[in-house]
């Protein structure tokens, strides 16, 4: 359960990659060579790793339309682990496997887990314990380097802190914890060891005001086609985030999520490891199953002992009966003009109070917007001519009727001219994308009652709870054009 | 390399880490290591710098300590530094790094053995450090050191399994006592030691009832004996057979130990929990009388976790214990969870991809086959998998991964509707590619087609449609030719007996040959020819239409007149494949026409030549011979590929063959042959007395120089040999061409030297270097070589610079062989006279005196000037020496011995030579003086 080496590579668009950090674990390597026997492939130097890795990720030779090593059909990229063919080595000894890599925002994090199994025939990935450890480590590193919205300069300074952080989190190739940004040194005066062991994931104890806050944030996705042949789709997924400032080594808290009567059950619940026990009924509802009315629908109890930092107590998904905003979008080509009709309707069960609500209407492959002749029944219209984008700002409230519409015509400079292009949105294939946030609402109805939060601690804490609904991937497709979907089973 | 100042360390360490091999090409590991160790001992070097300096030892110990001995010495030095470093909170970080470095060096040089003092000492140190539970003795500031000590102990135990097997009781009580977050380190250490100890026990013969109990209560020294015959390092769970303890063994104590560990497991970080669960799974699997039900209490918590490592260890538990821990209901439930998580919108993509793999390798309670191949668990139904159906908005890996699993689902189910869904998805991708999708989308589309073919190649309804769609795509996007060719190659390899790849090629061929001429613009033609070239390799495809198309194209377009070499070459490459086609007879005449037309009309000489060559081959060789000649390249040695490149098909290997590679390190060197081995044109042996009648010797002599080539060159001889130990790849070199470059303008360009071959372990090769000086001053030549290795690759290597010293340029007096001693002396006098400064503005005289040591003057002269001696007299001892330097310079010496000093009168016609001759004489006389001391 160890990793042999770790790399952090920066790769900006249009530039060649650069190894920013690497760490090798020779004691693990010595095990690798003992176990690998004839098929052992040593970890190459950074420079020899870089190009094969970037090639496998499809990041080399951007100017060449086809490179076999990068684009070949049989080099399938559906696994989570890469096989790197090292240059200058031949035969069986040339491939480094399994290299795990995740990339985000110009940074590529990669590691090579130890294969603790007979190397021939190649063992399946899930049989290797080190693989999930490697993924955990990479995810931890990712959070360490670019977590909480770190900018470029911040990433640089965190890279400099990395060796010290790894000394704690993974000194000898076996990941022990996620790398910590601030390493709270143990207090110089050690508190007398109490009767309770302090959790390893909680390096200190909180002192000060007691506070528990629980936030339920739901995101709703939707694909609406306005077409009888295609079922409209939507779903919702939620995150419960907690921040608990409580004294004591192991205070316990129980958070209870509840649904309104007849609410559809929370599905695919994933709990944070600090949750000490789970009732089996919580886990039964799954998006994979046909949901039936008999399923358990709460209350959902999560007993846990909180870590010091804010954390995601649980994730869930839910199938709700209606989308919050139902829309229709129709485009018609009339001569050089494009006639637009849009209707949006806010469902009556959803609170009419937005923090923001915008509908974006992008146009592709038509050049730039030249003329617009549009009317809206509510809100304002902003036109970004160069981007060929209409932004319909609906503001904080829908009108009493809960319906708004947009109509009129637009014309463009023509397909050959400058303007946004998209291979998906050709001819009349077009969409509206909605962006909104409604505070104090969840679509599933899931909520945390302030009084249901139980805290077993010496001091009575202040308890706050909140809810919100945010749009994510909320599309309304033009019903007169072809939507880019296959006829496959209806899923998002 | 001189020891640099401590400020240079960050750069040096960075340079080393960046590329050790490159860094060590300018120094040796020994030097670097000794520099490191020296400055680590230096109190003036800051602690943060020292931490940095330990990096190379922590990451590349085997490079710095190539032998166990060096490893041992290094560990001893580091341990010394550790004990000398003050035990203060300020130094904790350095001490941690020192501890880590020592462990790394000892383990990676395989030096954790009994009787190795430093290993034993270090283990004691680790154990002592670990014993300060709850920071009672040293306080909380030293907690990091304790953490590292535990980690080092665990690593020692992992690499030498069983080492701590007699200390279980001690480790257990340490783990129990610790209340700070460090209990995690002790717990994991105990877990690893426990697993290994039980494993050792299973390998023992005659295990008694109480042995396990005894093992848990053991508190002895390090079990060096266990490390003598090391255990298999592979995870027990991946072994085909897990070793087990006999069922009569007393397990009560073990049960309570495991229960307690599981109870407290919750206090560990998720990754460590996962690691501990794996250790315990292995322990329980080896002790069969211990029921796996002991894990039951943890299962629900694990099923519901968001942590990838915890879920993964649960799956491993499932694989190990199957239905003795997991009911059929559990299995169904777990599988559903996995499918749900494989598409959970709140999990990261790599995590989801991993879960899809976990589904395909799901440890079923009753597996139908367990060959390690991907297979679909019986319980996964199309309904269940429907949630994994890909969309065009998925990223490439997710899409392909989902497509793969869905294909398996529908294949299993034999559901026509499902295949239809997948085909529709392909068509949605097709549409995007058709609308100029990104390169990534294009690649994904072709891979998706590959996956589709892999699973549904028997379903003609769709595969025929697919050919049509792909041809349509090609009609509009001819730049997709390489993608299509790759698809054909890959599917052909995958589906050996399917005709689909050939059918696709035939469709493309038909499409191309039917294109109207005016559509064959220059750019597209190149791609069409590529496709036709590939079609021509297909035995089942008729080639007549191709040949007619090409002939028609050449006759009715301006191509021949334009004479584009690239197009010509592409045409020829189609022809080449046609020449190899088994049904060549069917197109024989047309192909001959085509080649003949090209050789007459194509306005490029090279293309004409090749066309003629092919034509000759076609019309003169039998079919067998023809394919014999053309097949030579493929699969044969690469050396032949090179020589036959003109009739070779293009391939990536070929381009690597035609590239000159660079060697990383010098492979060759030139070693100068000693003076005796050099045969300079010998003019010194004199002819019979008085063979030269009364003539003006000087005139006769000077007349020789009317020929500009006369005595104008110096020939130096070298051994060409290998530069030390070189890679076996370079043990046989051929066609070595040495190239020299002068560093100044005093010499004429040195011509290249060729050596046919050089073989390791055989005699070195003698190489003559011909120098033609304009001005005979010392110089340095740069040298490089190009050669071919046995595998046919060409290499370029740099040699060490070749110094040309002043004495290398001396030639004896160039006079005809038959000249007598007397004539030579006479010439010497005449030259001397003519060189007197009054006669020439360039000439100069000088006087040099030196002390004659014990070594007589005669010896000095004989050894250095033997060949250039014109006369010698014994009493009084005097010598005349003439040094001729091409093109035509002289240094004349009269050397006299008087009393205890010798004097050298020097005259030369080029005063610029004086400093060189002075330093040379000083050198040889110093040398003689030194030798006598």
UniProtKB/TrEMBL annotation, chain A:
It is found in: Late endosome membrane; Lysosome membrane. InterPro entries: AP2_Mu_C_sf, AP5M1, MHD. It holds the Pfam family Adap_comp_sub. Residues 209-478 form the MHD domain. It comes from the Eukaryota. SUPFAM superfamilies: Second domain of Mu2 adaptin subunit (ap50) of ap2 adaptor. It is a peripheral membrane protein. Coiled coil: none annotated. CDD domains: AP_MuD_MHD (cd09256). Keywords: Membrane, Protein transport, Transport. Belongs to the adaptor complexes medium subunit family. This is AP-5 complex subunit mu-1.
UniProtKB/TrEMBL annotation, chain B:
Residues 826-924 form the AP5B1 C-terminal domain. Residues 732-802 form the AP-5 complex subunit beta-1 beta-barrel domain. Residues 35-106 form the AP-5 complex subunit beta-1 N-terminal domain. The keyword Iron does not apply. InterPro entries: AP5B1, AP5B1_barrel, AP5B1_C, AP5B1_middle, AP5B1_N, ARM-type_fold. Residues 250-626 form the AP5B1 middle domain. Keywords: Protein transport, Transport. This is AP-5 complex subunit beta-1. It comes from Huso huso.
């Amino acid at each position: 359960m160890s990793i042999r080496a770790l790399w952090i590579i920066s790769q900006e668009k249009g530039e060649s990659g650069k190894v920013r950090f690497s760490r090798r674990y020779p004691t693990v390597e010595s095990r690798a060579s003992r176990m690998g026997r004839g098929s052992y492939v040593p970890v190459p130097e950074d420079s020899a790793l870089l190009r094969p890795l970037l090639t496998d990720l499809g990041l080399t030779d951007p100017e060449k339309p086809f490179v076999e090593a990068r684009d070949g059909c049989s080099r399938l990229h559906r696994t989570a682990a890469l096989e790197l063919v090292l240059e200058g080595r031949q035969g069986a000894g040339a491939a480094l496997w399994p290299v795990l890599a995740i990339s985000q925002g110009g940074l590529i994090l990669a590691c090579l887990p130890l294969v603790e199994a007979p190397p021939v025939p190649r063992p399946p990935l899930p049989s290797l314990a080190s693989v999930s450890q490697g993924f955990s480590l990479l995810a931890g590193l990712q959070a360490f380097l670019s977590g909480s919205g770190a900018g470029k300069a911040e990433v640089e300074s965190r890279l400099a802190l990395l060796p010290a952080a790894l000394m704690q989190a993974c000194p000898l190739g076996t990941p022990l914890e996620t790398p910590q940004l601030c390493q709270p040194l143990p207090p110089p005066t050690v508190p007398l060891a109490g009767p309770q062991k302090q959790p390893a994931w909680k390096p200190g104890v909180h002192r000060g005001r007691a506070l528990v806050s629980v936030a339920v944030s739901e995101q709703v996705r939707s694909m609406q086609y306005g077409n009888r042949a295609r079922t409209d789709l939507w779903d919702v997924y939620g995150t419960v985030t907690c921040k608990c400032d409580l004294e004591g080594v192991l205070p316990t808290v129980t958070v209870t999520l509840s649904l309104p009567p007849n609410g559809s059950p929370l599905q695919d619940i994933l709990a944070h490891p600090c949750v000490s026990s789970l009732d089996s009924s919580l886990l039964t509802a799954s998006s994979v199953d046909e949901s039936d009315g008999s399923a358990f629908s709460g209350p959902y109890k999560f007993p846990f002992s909180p870590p010091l930092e804010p954390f995601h107590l649980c994730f869930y998904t839910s199938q709700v009966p209606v989308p919050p905003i139902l829309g229709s979008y129709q485009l018609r080509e009339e001569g050089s003009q494009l006639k637009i009709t849009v209707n949006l309707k806010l469902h009556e069960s959803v609170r009419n109070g937005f923090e923001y609500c915008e509908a974006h209407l992008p146009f592709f492959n038509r050049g730039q917007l030249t003329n617009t002749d549009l009317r809206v029944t509510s809100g304002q219209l902003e036109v970004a001519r160069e981007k060929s984008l209409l932004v319909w700002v609906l503001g904080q409230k829908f009108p009493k009727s809960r319906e708004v519409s947009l109509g009129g015509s637009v014309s463009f400079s023509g397909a050959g001219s400058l303007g946004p292009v998209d291979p998906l949105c050709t001819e009349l294939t077009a969409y509206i994308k909605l962006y909104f946030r409604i505070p104090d609402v969840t679509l599933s109805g899931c909520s945390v009652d302030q009084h249901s939060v139980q805290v077993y601690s010496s001091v009575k804490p202040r308890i706050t709870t909140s809810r919100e609904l945010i749009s994510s991937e909320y599309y309304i497709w033009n019903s007169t054009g072809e939507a880019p979907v296959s006829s496959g089973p209806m899923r998002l | 390399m001189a020891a640099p100042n401590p400020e240079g360390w960050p750069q040096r360490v960075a340079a080393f880490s960046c590329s050790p091999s490159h860094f060590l090409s300018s120094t040796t590991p020994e030097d670097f290591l000794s520099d490191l160790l020296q400055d680590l001992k230096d109190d003036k070097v800051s602690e943060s710098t020292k931490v940095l300096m330990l990096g190379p030892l922590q990451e590349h110990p085997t490079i710095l300590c190539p032998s166990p001995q060096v490893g041992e010495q290094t560990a001893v030095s580091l341990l010394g530094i550790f004990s000398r470093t003050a035990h203060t909170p300020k130094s904790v970080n350095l001490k941690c790094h020192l501890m880590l470095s020592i462990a790394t060096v000892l383990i990676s040089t395989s030096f954790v053995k009994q009787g190795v003092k430093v290993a034993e000492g270090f283990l004691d140190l680790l154990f002592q450090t670990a014993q300060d539970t709850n920071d009672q003795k040293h306080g909380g500031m030293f907690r990091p050191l304790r953490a590292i000590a535990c980690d080092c102990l665990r690593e020692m135990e992992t690499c030498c399994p069983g080492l701590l097997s007699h200390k279980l009781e001690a480790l257990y009580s340490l783990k129990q006592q610790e209340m700070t977050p460090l209990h995690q380190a002790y717990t994991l250490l105990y877990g690893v030691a426990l697993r290994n100890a039980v494993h050792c026990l299973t390998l023992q013969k005659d295990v008694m009832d109480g042995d396990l109990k005894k093992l848990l209560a053991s508190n002895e020294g390090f079990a060096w004996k266990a490390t003598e015959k090391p255990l298999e390092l592979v995870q027990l769970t991946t072994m085909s057979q897990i070793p087990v303890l006999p069922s009569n063994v007393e397990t009560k104590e073990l049960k309570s130990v495991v229960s307690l560990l599981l109870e407290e497991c919750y206090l560990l970080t998720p990754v460590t929990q996962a690691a501990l669960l794996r250790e315990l799974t292995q322990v329980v699997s080896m002790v069969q009388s211990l029921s796996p039900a002991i894990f039951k209490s943890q299962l629900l918590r694990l099923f519901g976790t968001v942590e990838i490592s915890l879920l993964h260890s649960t799956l491993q538990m499932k694989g190990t214990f199957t239905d003795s821990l997991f009911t059929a209901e559990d299995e169904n439930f777990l599988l559903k969870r996995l499918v749900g998580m494989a598409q959970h919108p709140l999990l990261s993509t790599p995590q989801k991809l991993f879960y899809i793999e976990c589904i395909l390798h799901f440890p079923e309670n009753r597996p139908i086959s367990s060959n390690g191949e991907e297979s679909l668990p019986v319980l996964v139904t199309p309904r269940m998998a429907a949630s994994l159906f890909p969309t065009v908005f998925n990223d490439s890996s997710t899409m392909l991964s989902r497509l793969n699993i869905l294909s398996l689902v529908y294949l299993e189910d034999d559901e026509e509707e499902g295949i239809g869904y997948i085909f529709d998805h392909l068509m949605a991708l097709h549409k995007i590619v058709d609308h100029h999708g990104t390169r990534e989308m294009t690649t994904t589309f072709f891979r998706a087609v590959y996956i589709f073919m892999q699973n549904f190649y028997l379903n003609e309804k769709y595969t025929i449609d697919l050919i049509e769609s792909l041809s349509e795509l090609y009609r509009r996007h001819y730049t997709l030719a390489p993608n299509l060719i790759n698809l054909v190659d890959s599917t052909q390899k995958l589906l050996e007996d399917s005709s689909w790849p050939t059918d696709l090629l035939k469709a493309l061929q038909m499409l191309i040959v039917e294109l109207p001429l005016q559509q064959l613009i220059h750019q597209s033609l190149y791609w069409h020819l590529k496709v036709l070239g590939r079609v021509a390799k297909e035995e089942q495809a008729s080639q007549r239409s191709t040949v007619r198309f090409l002939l028609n194209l050449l006759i009715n377009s301006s191509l021949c007149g334009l004479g584009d070499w690239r197009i010509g070459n592409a045409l020829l490459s189609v022809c080449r494949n046609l020449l190899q086609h088994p049904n060549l007879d069917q197109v024989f005449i047309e192909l001959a026409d085509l080649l003949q037309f090209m050789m007459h009309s194509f306005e490029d000489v090279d293309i004409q030549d090749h066309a003629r060559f092919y034509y000759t081959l076609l019309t003169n060789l039998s079919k067998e011979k023809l394919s014999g000649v053309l097949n030579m390249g493929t699969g044969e040695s690469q050396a032949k590929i090179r020589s036959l490149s003109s009739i070779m098909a293009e391939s990536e290997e070929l381009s690597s063959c035609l590239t000159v590679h660079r060697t990383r390190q010098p492979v060759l060197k030139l070693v100068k042959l000693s003076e005796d081995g050099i045969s300079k044109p010998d003019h010194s042996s004199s002819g019979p007395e008085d063979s030269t009648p009364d003539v003006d010797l000087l005139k006769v002599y000077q007349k020789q120089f009317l020929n500009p080539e006369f005595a104008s060159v110096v020939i130096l001889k070298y051994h060409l040999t290998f530069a030390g130990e070189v890679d076996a790849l370079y043990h046989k070199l051929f066609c070595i061409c040495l190239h020299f470059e002068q560093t100044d303008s005093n010499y004429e360009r040195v011509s290249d030297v060729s050596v046919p071959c050089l073989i390791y372990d055989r005699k070195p090769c003698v190489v003559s270097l011909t120098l033609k000086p304009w001005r005979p001053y010392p110089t340095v030549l740069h040298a490089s070589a190009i050669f071919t290795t046995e595998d046919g690759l060409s290499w370029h290597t740099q040699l060490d610079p070749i110094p040309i010293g002043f004495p290398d340029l001396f030639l004896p007096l160039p006079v005809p062989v038959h000249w007598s001693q007397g004539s030579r002396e006479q010439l010497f006098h005449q030259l001397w006279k003519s060189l007197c400064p009054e006669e020439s503005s360039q000439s100069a005289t000088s006087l040099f005196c030196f002390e004659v040591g014990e070594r007589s003057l005669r010896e000095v002269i004989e050894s250095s000037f033997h060949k250039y001696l014109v006369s010698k007299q014994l009493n009084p001892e005097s010598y005349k020496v003439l040094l001729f330097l091409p093109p035509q310079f002289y240094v004349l010496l009269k050397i006299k011995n008087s009393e205890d000093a010798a004097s050298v009168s020097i005259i030369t016609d080029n005063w610029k030579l004086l400093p060189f001759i002075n330093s040379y004489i000083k050198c040889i006389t110093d040398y003689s003086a030194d030798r006598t001391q």
